[in-house]
Task: inverse folding
């Protein structure tokens, strides 16, 4: 989920081909999708058609099909990415049919969902592709009429010449397919957009509301069997032996096998990112005729496990992390000035520690995948955010050529980062390779929650010095499980705003697998930092909004290329949020909290309104202002904003996941609380209108939500929440009598 | 294994499954009606909601042996052309993000509105509280139920 900028040639590579069935197929690659090692070819005529990872198909009858290259996890790219093509192709959105593209493992690495980057990186190349196709169609029509292409205009799939004669795209598509691919096509000015900026409903809406098969769990082929996997009951345990006598006697059970050897080889070879839950242990697999029979027979297996490493408990991990914060072993990720000097000369010092638990992803569709492996082909179907990665790893694991892999992506019942990791793909591949039958691996909810790649528990300690009414020093220490913050995160606000500034990180390597979780690191860092700034303003006795605006003022004109947030855009979202939320206008019984944050290249400010109901503070409303540049699909954008804010509020309030002797203490929704309908705030969203290139939206509204709520809870209760989830500290939720009276 | 004759979406079906098999898996694996989703298996998330004689039930925790002759309605049978007022409202509001939980949400909402065609906002919240949406499309679910109510009520 790297957010680092990628240098890419802004031109999309395009090639055309006539279709046997008539019509034109335009293959293009999102050049942003190329691996760094892949050099752009000098002569595109040398490329084969399968070197392209996305396609436009225009049939003789003018029907347009766009193949969306990136996986759909609920973030809306299956709708929004084709909108970019349709805009420049100049076809009516209602006449476009969108299909999920398949994986091309040869050259591309960006065919993934993660880091809120699909639209940002697809912005230029997708429009270039649409515009190139349009130009070819125009050139074909102009040749037919014997006029200059510049005399022709297009609208909604129809080409018109100066005399008013018209040709549909379908009328000239055969001729167009034979033409040279034009270079240097002109893209539309934003003011002329007809598709971009209009509300486009989810392209799969009809299938979703009628229950059509769409998801990996719905995929089925003739003769398919089902697999359920018994994994270690705790992190730190590995399989010793098992008894399958009972399980094998159960109805529908076809076989019980042991897997793990191949996956361990994969691990040794270092193929792939081995953040795979319980990857060190062998596993026992029940193969059955139906899902239920497989899940039930798994319960009838008995196994013995041996301790392979420390069986960690939450209390133990807390001590490790606090020990790291108290210690001296840090890696410094950014250092400006001299914080030791700033702290020694300070009038006042504020230091706070913020703590967060592990979090499971809890995609509503549990992990699952289909595989059918023959000597000719490795057929993989299912929901994965990193299809290319999974295909390469499976090929490596089985000692096969990656060209044997045919991977089809299904719509995903949520991702949130969990499906970046292909553990379930490797598992099903090993199973399919062993049984030589088409097989679907299905995780039960318990499997899904206990064999996770969790958001790691993290603790932040922030220390700031105040001298003569100014913030003179700022030190952020991170102690995290697994890894640490990455990329440009150490250079986010307040980097550049404070003369003496340092970010230090340390990590504890636990045997509990961790990974990306919607807005990695920033999902909690934003809470720590924006809670801290609120308290800092209180300590300095200055206005909390003004403090942020003043600090941002100091960043203006920076020449530091590591600083990619814009102080102007951040100040703007803050001011708009203040205005739209009625900030500072006292209303009886309403307590507000503020937070602003930049991540995934977008700027966001949020205000949470807390009211007291039955003596308890309740989050009633969140005003969210987002600057993500041009909004491709406002309807989808609003959905992402609402979802991100509520997800952020929900996990800050309720998300808790503890371990005892290596075993997750929550295994299903009876012990894991997700926010529900009765607990949601109203989300009022405001999108800043500008003509700047679009940036991420799947993640950036989540991080500030927790801080906005914590700051509002402070206003309501007088208490500071420094640990998540807030619901774990009911004593802090007590509202003083005067607050109830208002 | 015992044989059961059940009525799904107005059609009689014969299935040959163990008596403790949850209706959910009978629908999904035996009858190929995959619109009804598996989420938790313990009646906590609502993804598997279907109607049993018009009442919303969690099919993941309903053994086939207890179904009897009751009429089962799944998302596939809620309307012939996907034009039940609740489905139309879902489309009008563009409710789904990932979409996985939405069949269960629609089935809960439609049974609720059958019994209470003119609900208050709080009644909607209470009725829908048992259905989890991990993408948190809750505000739009609420709005869609309100819109559907105006068309039904």
Result:
């Amino acid at each position: 989920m790297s957010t680092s900028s990628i240098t890419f040639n802004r031109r999309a590579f395009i090639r055309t081909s006539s279709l046997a069935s008539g019509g034109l197929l335009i293959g293009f690659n999102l050049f942003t999708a190329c691996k760094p090692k892949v050099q752009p070819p000098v002569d595109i005529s040398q490329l084969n058609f399968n070197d392209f990872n996305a396609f436009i198909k225009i049939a003789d009858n003018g029907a347009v099909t766009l193949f969306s290259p990136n996986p759909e996890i609920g973030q809306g790219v299956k709708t929004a990415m084709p909108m970019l093509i349709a805009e420049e192709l100049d076809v009516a959105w209602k006449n476009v049919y969108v299909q999920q593209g398949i994986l091309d493992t040869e050259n591309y690495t960006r065919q993934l969902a993660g880091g809120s980057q699909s639209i940002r990186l697809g912005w230029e190349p997708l429009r270039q592709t649409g515009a190139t196709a349009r130009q070819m169609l125009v050139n074909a029509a102009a040749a037919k009429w014997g006029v200059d292409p510049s005399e022709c205009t297009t609208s909604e799939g129809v080409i018109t010449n100066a005399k008013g004669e018209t040709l549909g795209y379908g009328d000239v598509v055969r001729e167009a397919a034979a033409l040279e691919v034009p270079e240097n096509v002109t893209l539309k000015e934003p003011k002329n957009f007809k598709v971009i900026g209009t509300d486009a409903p989810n392209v799969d809406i009809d299938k979703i509301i009628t229950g059509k098969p769409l998801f990996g769990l719905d995929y089925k082929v003739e003769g398919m069997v089902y697999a359920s996997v018994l994994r270690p009951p705790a992190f730190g345990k590995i399989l010793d032996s098992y008894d399958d006598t009972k399980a094998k006697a159960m109805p529908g059970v076809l076989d019980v096998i042991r897997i793990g050897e191949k996956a361990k080889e994969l691990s040794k070879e270092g193929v792939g990112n081995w953040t795979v839950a319980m990857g060190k242990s062998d596993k026992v697999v029940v193969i059955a005729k139906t899902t239920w029979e497989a899940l039930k027979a798994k319960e009838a297996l008995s196994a013995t496990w041996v301790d392979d490493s420390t069986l960690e408990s939450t209390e133990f991990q807390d001590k490790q992390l606090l020990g790291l914060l108290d210690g001296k072993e840090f890696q410094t990720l950014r250092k400006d000035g001299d914080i030791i000097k700033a702290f020694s000369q300070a009038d006042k010092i504020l230091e706070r520690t913020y703590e967060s638990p592990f979090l499971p992803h809890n995609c509503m569709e549990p992990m699952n995948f289909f595989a059918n492996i023959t000597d000719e082909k490795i057929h993989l179907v299912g929901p994965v955010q990193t299809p290319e990665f999974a295909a390469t790893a499976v090929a490596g694991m089985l000692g096969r050529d990656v060209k044997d892999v045919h991977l089809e992506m299904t719509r995903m019942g949520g991702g949130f980062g969990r499906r970046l990791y292909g553990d379930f793909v490797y598992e099903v591949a090993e199973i399919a390779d062993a049984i030589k039958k088409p097989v679907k691996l299905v995780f039960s909810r318990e499997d899904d929650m206990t064999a996770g790649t969790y958001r790691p528990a993290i603790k932040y300690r922030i220390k700031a010095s105040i001298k003569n009414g100014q913030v003179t020093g700022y030190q952020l220490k991170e102690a995290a499980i697994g890894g640490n913050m990455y990329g440009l995160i150490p250079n986010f606000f307040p980097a550049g705003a404070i003369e003496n500034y340092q970010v230090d990180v340390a990590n504890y390597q636990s045997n509990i697998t961790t990974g990306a979780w919607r807005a990695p690191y920033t999902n909690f860092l934003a809470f720590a930092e924006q809670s801290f700034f609120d308290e800092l303003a209180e300590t300095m006795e200055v206005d909390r909004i003004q403090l942020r605006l003043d600090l941002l003022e100091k960043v203006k004109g920076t020449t530091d290329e590591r600083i990619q947030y814009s102080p102007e855009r951040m100040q703007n979202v803050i001011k708009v949020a203040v205005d739209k939320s009625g900030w500072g206008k006292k209303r009886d019984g309403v307590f507000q909290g503020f937070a602003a944050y930049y991540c995934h290249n977008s700027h966001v400010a949020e205000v949470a309104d807390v009211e007291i109901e039955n003596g308890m503070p309740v989050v009633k409303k969140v005003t969210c202002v987002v600057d993500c540049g041009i909004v491709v699909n406002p309807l989808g954008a609003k959905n992402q904003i609402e979802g991100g804010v509520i997800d952020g509020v929900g996990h800050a309030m309720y998300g808790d996941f503890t371990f005892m002797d290596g075993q997750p203490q929550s295994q299903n929704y009876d012990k894991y609380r997700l926010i529900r309908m009765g607990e949601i705030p109203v989300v009022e969203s405001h999108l800043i209108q500008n003509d700047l290139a679009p940036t991420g939206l799947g993640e950036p509204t989540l991080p500030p939500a927790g801080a906005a709520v914590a700051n509002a809870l402070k206003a309501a209760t007088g208490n500071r929440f420094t640990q998540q989830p807030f619901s774990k500290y009911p004593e802090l939720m007590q509202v003083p009598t005067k607050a109830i009276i208002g | 294994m015992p044989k059961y004759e059940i009525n799904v979406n107005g059609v009689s079906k014969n299935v040959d499954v163990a008596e403790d098999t949850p209706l959910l898996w009978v629908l999904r694996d035996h009858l190929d009606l995959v619109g009804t989703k598996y989420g938790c298996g313990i009646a906590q998330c609502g993804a598997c909601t279907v109607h049993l004689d018009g009442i919303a039930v969690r099919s993941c925790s309903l053994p086939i042996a207890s179904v009897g002759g009751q009429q089962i309605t799944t998302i596939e049978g809620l309307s012939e052309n996907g034009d039940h007022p609740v489905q139309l409202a879902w489309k009008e509001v563009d409710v789904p993000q990932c979409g996985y939980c939405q069949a269960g949400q629609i089935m809960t909402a439609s049974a609720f509105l059958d019994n209470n065609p003119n609900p208050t906002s709080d009644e909607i919240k209470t009725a829908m509280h048992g259905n989890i949406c991990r993408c948190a499309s809750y505000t739009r679910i609420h709005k869609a139920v309100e819109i559907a109510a105006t068309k039904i009520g």
